[in-house]
Specification:
Blueprint: E1 2-4, H1 11-18, H2 22-28, E2 42-44, E3 48-54, H3 61-67, H4 72-78, E4 92-98, H5 112-125, E5 130-136, E6 142-149, E7 153-159, H6 167-185, E8 188-189, E9 192-193, H7 195-200, E10 201-206, H8 211-219, H9 227-234, H10 261-265, H11 286-298, E11 302-308, E12 312-314, H12 324-336, E13 339-341, H13 350-358, E14 362-367, H14 379-395
Parallel strand pairs: 7-10, 7-11, 11-14, 12-13
Antiparallel strand pairs: 1-2, 3-4, 5-6, 6-10, 8-9, 12-14
Helix pairs in contact: 3-4, 5-6, 6-14, 12-14
The structure holds zinc ion.
Zinc ion (ZN) binds near residues 162 and 254.
GO molecular function: metallocarboxypeptidase activity; zinc ion binding
GO cellular component, one term: extracellular space
Cofactor: Zn(2+)
């Protein structure tokens, strides 16, 4: 929500009258220095929307303010010139309304377009949410990376590296919305205060690493060539893509990282496939090139790659993981009910590469149970169990 600065306004005053933590207001207005507010400037207030109230008989400023959960001071501040004595029936007042519930709908087939729509809605309401493009897909879609936080400790989450595991994106976007909502309200999540997390940590989130693949699983083969013919050929002519994990080129993006790539590559198919093809070399695919470049430039303290399914947490790679990985894995298991497992047969995954090259904690979290793609009916249970893991990761 935008508000026009008046003489005497400060970010601190906005923080008090809106009940929004100070740093969130500062970070929502990166172009305006905190000590340089001037009358007439337009400032973004996160977590609020303007609504209009038409004055009816019996209204008072106090009554309108309390019905909307705001102070009389804020109502008067929002409507200069209006005082209790001159409320006119039929006049329209501007009322800042605090948003107190989720605004996105992640409980639907979560295509690339649906995620962008929800991201844009969140960015408009919570301008302290930052975004950049971390790379492009085979078909040229921009792959967003979102950031929340002011801290030097950067924790990275990603989802939908595997196309038919797109319910992971739903869980990540629900967490993003709940975190933004709690932050702007000064609220806790599961008794964990969120504002200290914001100040100490930065969340880096790539909710959908493989957007072409997700759209293929949800919508079927695209109209555009050469992609339509090639994915149908790779899929053996079958126009149902529920078993598809790869990107549009038939390469499994979680077998593309330079961490014992050669060992894994000989075990799977030797040509483009719906799943398990490692490609001709590590890092040939644009989606993983983007994710690798982001990781190299970001100094992540910890990474969590979300997959389905199995309700397990993989936390080791060749014994290269640091000692705190075991402690964190045990904590994640305790809060989710998932099983912590140190080693798995496959190599060349994202978390493998992160552990190998940084010797920092990396995890593959397998959400839910059943056959991919998991049905949306599992989303509440998946979110309930993974929420504790995401919070614990931010807490470090
Ligand atoms: Zn997976």
């Amino acid at each position: 929500m935008q508000i026009v600065v008046q003489n005497g306004d400060t970010y601190w005053r906005f923080s008090l009258i809106f009940g929004v933590p100070l740093q969130l207001i500062i970070d929502s207005n990166p172009a305006i220095a905190p000590d340089a507010l001037q009358a007439g400037q337009v400032v973004q207030i996160p977590g609020y929307e303007w609504r209009r109230h038409t004055v009816v008989a019996g209204d008072s400023l106090w009554r309108i303010a309390s019905a909307n959960g705001i102070s009389v001071e804020l109502l008067m501040r929002s409507n200069p010139g209006v005082a209790s004595g001159n409320l006119v029936i039929g006049a329209v007042l501007l009322v800042p309304q605090k948003i107190t519930s989720r605004i996105i709908d992640a409980d639907r087939p979560y295509t690339y377009a649906a995620v962008l729509e929800d991201y844009n809605a969140l960015a408009a309401l919570y301008p302290f949410l930052r975004s950049s493009t971390m790379g492009k897909s085979v078909m040229g879609k921009d792959i967003p990376e979102l950031r929340v936080g002011n801290g030097s400790r950067i924790v990275h989450f990603n989802g939908s590296i595997h196309a038919n595991e797109w319910i992971t994106t739903c869980a990540l976007m629900l967490f993003l919305n709940d975190y933004l909502l709690a932050l702007s309200s000064g609220a806790d999540i599961r008794e964990a205060p969120t504002y200290p997390l914001y100040l100490e940590t930065t969340l880096s989130l790539v909710p959908m690493v493989n957007p072409d693949g997700v759209d293929l699983v949800i919508n079927g083969a695209p109209e555009s060539e050469p992609y339509r013919s090639s994915v149908l050929a790779i899929n053996g002519g079958n126009d149902s893509f529920g078993g598809w994990k790869a990107n549009m080129a038939g390469v499994d993006l979680n077998k593309q990282f330079p961490a014992l790539w050669e060992r894994d590559a000989v075990m799977g198919p030797q040509e483009p496939s719906p799943r398990d093809y490692s490609g001709t070399a590590p890092l040939t695919e644009p989606e993983v090139q983007g994710l690798a470049a982001l990781t190299r430039s970001s100094d992540f303290s910890m990474v969590l790659a979300f997959h389905t399914q199995g309700e397990v947490i993989y936390w080791g790679f060749q014994g290269l993981e640091p000692p705190e990985s075991a402690i964190l894995a045990a904590r994640f298991a305790a809060v989710s009910g998932y099983e912590a497992i140190r080693f798995v047969d496959s190599t060349a995954g994202y978390k493998d590469w992160f552990i190998q090259d940084w010797r920092r904690p990396g995890f593959t979290i397998e959400l839910g149970s059943g056959i991919n793609p998991l049905p949306l009916s599992q989303l509440p249970d998946i979110y309930n169990k993974s929420l504790g893991i995401m919070l614990a990761a931010l807490q470090g």
